[in-house]
Amino acid sequence: MRARNLSRITCREKWNMSKNHPGLLHHFDDPEQQLDASQSGMWIFLATEVMFFGGMFIGYTVYREGYFEVFAHASNHLNVWLGSINTAVLICSSLSMALAVHSAQSGHRRQLLVFLVLTMLLGTVFLGIKFTEYYHKYEEHLIPGLDFAFKEGNPGHAAIFFSFYFAMTGVHALHMVIGLGLLAYLAVKTTRGRFSPLYYTPVEMVGLYWHFVDIVWIFLFPLLYLVGRHL
Amino acid sequence: MNLGFPLFPEQASTMASRVDALYFVLIGVSVFFATLICLTIIVFAFRYRRRSELERPPEISGDLRLEILWSVIPLGFTLIVFVWGAKLYFETYSPPRNSLEIHVVAKQWMWKAQHPEGRSEIDELHLPAGRAIKLLLTSQDVIHDFYVPAFRIKTDVLPGRYMTVSFEPSKVGAYRLLCAEYCGTQHSGMLGRIVVLSPAEYQTWLSSGPAESTVAATGARLFQSQGCVACHADKDTERGPALADLYGKQVRLQDGKVIVADENYIRESIVNPQAKIVAGYRPIMPTFKGIVSEEGILQIISYLKSLDRPEGAQVEK
Amino acid sequence: MNDAVPERRLHYLNVSYGVKSWLCTTDHKRIAWLYLLSITFFFFIGGMAATLLRLELLTPQGDLVQAETYNKLFTMHGVMMIFFFLIPSIPAVLGNFLIPMMIGARDLAFPRLNLASWYLYIIGGLLAIGAAVAGGVDTGWTFYTPYSSIYSNTHVTLTVCGIFINGFSSILTGLNFIVTIHKMRAPGMTWFRLPLFVWSHYATSIIFILGTPVVAIALALVALERVFRLGIFDPELGGDPVLFQHLFWFYSHPAVYIMILPGMGVISEVIACFSRKRVFGYSFVAFSSLAIAVLGFLVWGHHMFVSGQSIYAGMIFSLLSMMVAIPSAIKVFNWTATLYRGSIALDAPMLYALGFIGLFTIGGLTGIFLATLAIDVQVHDTYFVVAHFHYIMVGGAVMAYLGGIHFWWPKMTGRLYPEGWARLAAVTIFLGFNLTFFPQFVLGYLGMPRRYHAYPPEFQVLNVMSSAGASILAVGYLLPLIYLIWSLRYGAVAGMNPWKATGLEWQTPSPPPTDNFEVTPTVTREAYDYARPEPQSDYVPGEVEHV
Questions:
Q1: What's the gap between Cα A197 and its chain centre?
Q2: Which of residues 233-252 of C touch B (CB under 8 A)?
């Protein structure tokens, strides 16, 4: 049970406090409680995201176990170079995001803006490479439902592989796009001086989200791109 | 008690009375506990009704012994019921060796059946009483469900896969077959009639239909006409393995896995031949999906089963 | 506080007027009302579908509506009732309204997220209704593949999108509750002083956040399969339609615990208050809620005993399903024991609560039948299952919801409902309910499958009984709609605590001010501190310092 000697403050006092503590919402007793709540909320949300992606990972695992050969052949059609570059891009974007949070923490507003924009740039590069890959698949007739053609094994099973590929990377890309939107929002708020060492919770929360999206990719990449590859 | 309408299904299989016994025990215990709770509530609500605003109930928080008692007793009861139900369930999935095997293909919205002697039926199934029956079922489209309340049997019928259900009809008569998995517009119209005859009458019925080849013979003809024999001859060739003695055996696949050749494996090999390649062979078998019907695949499987040499080791599925 | 002249005192209802003040509110109490009105709307849509179904089932032939229409009606009934009525009902209405008050907080942790939850719910609901208006969907609320992903040519994708979006409403509500209960309890409000209503919502919220995302992805994959012709569940491509069932039931089984756990929380509050006693075995009831939430995730395969799932998996699921029944039994015994030597008043909330215990017991016991493998073979996908879950959902959850609405009505509105009419409605609902659904147990074992538009004639008499009961049930539901609205204007003015209940929510005026408490209370007593020996008052409210 946290120490709560602030229990007897009235609404009026809270209003006064919020003037000194930027961002303090009126239903919280103090900024620590608010930050604590925000962090808990974001971690719980990420838990739900794990369950969300988890469903697709389970489905993928079931079929990979059943159709290993075909999945290996299909996976070889994915461009492991582009995938690796994308992995590096995302890891760097996580680095720039972490640096952004650090800048907010230490009150360096310009640095914060730079790192936010850098993260957005890297995210955009990721998406650009991703859509280039999608376009290649379109040209190679490897999009299920669109003139799908596969020679090295059962085309139905290969279609299942590519269904999962597009569903999983597609949902991941959607999360990236949402992340870019959130970063843009943070950038705008930064230019308006919203964040300071006393209050930078949204930056930290988006940081958690961004790292999570990065981690999902770290799992997706070997699972989809590196099936049956030998170095 | 004749009300003019039934309250309980007929018992027309050897399993029915056994399932009903468990059902009645469950009803008995449920009535006991439900009555206990409801009566207790009514008695307490009356006996302890508020007579004055000044009355003060005693401060009771709980009683560990009671908590243990009413946790352990229900747990014990449910475990007994679990074991009983699991045993019965397990038995229905262990068909006896000499079962009469009948193929059933479901499609929106009808049931098609074929006896091993070759006779086919639609929306009807004639069976001999007193004989163990094993149905091998598949669907041509969506998931259906083969349900005969009088036999106490039910199984989903899936596309792309075989299900089996086994039972022994015990009473001559006609019983309803109903589809019990929602399958589209005419789901409630997908009814059938199971006609159980005495063994003698069943033989009469079998021979009274148009002269047909047995399922295995039809399968043999398909095996020839579809060109299977070109690669699957009496002995292994470099194109494909021989298939005599295949059913029920262990097969080593290309990736090292060992599986048992059951109906599902044979069907898959016909429609998706690249899925499981036998070790030492090339993936050159073409698919027969759309070329051979579900009934045809079942006939080919019956043919392959008939090739089993008696001295070969049989692995029961 | 001064409760003699409610009209002049500012509270959450009159602090501002206008549509914008309601549609842009972040006050958890106003959001609760937004939900109350919308779930009532969806309840009546689902109810109209049910009316048509029961009318059709009066005769064995399909003569009222066409088969396709019937199939769309039962799908609509299931989708509306489950996703847009039952799942939100108690948590989004009573949970939203009461949880902050019960723990001594001014609002939930994330009030704006709370409003967003409501908008997501509305958008989802409108999409589902849109699908109905555009021609309907006929897959059943369970959307089994390959029928839903390939064969049905109705508005599957649109409906699935509505349910998907609504799922996020649930997830955010659950998230909000968990963080609120962890982080915003008033000083002195330790975990074991929390009302059992809060415990049950905490357990429910765990299921919200862990289960809902999985059904979201299952349904999304069905939609993707339809739109982009992917082949994940398509047996033609080597896909497995049973995989869908696993993904679907992994959520949808815990979902039924989402629907019943909050109701159990209401029952605990009502039984304690109207017996003037502590809930017997408080910690056992609290831990049972958590046990139900956890075990509930391990039993989904009991919907699939005949689906082609391995028989050994079936045995494990059967065993676990037996075990999940035990915590519910523990609760029933504890509630009944609470009545012992109590001082019992049979006001409408208590009638609903006592009815709940009886009907939930029957529903729960029939769950054992379904968990028993050999019996389930006979009754799976028959009216036995329909009867079982309606006993729990309607005899249980809906009765608990109505009981809770009546119990907290004075707090929410500052008015008392007319007790005579309320008791009449409770009894009517109880009787109508039993006549509707008990015959369905018999129908199920007899062999009448679910989702049948026309049926063999030997099933008619039982069906007529069921439809007759449904008409009585309908009357029972209409009564509260009328007299509750009537009471808003003409009901007697309620004081701060007309039931003399413990609980922090009863220590604020009725209706409460926007911030709930002028001063954050300090809690010094346990929950349900009834049965005090003092002559002036047999209970002590949750906190010592009065406002």
A1: 24
A2: 235-236, 238, 241-242
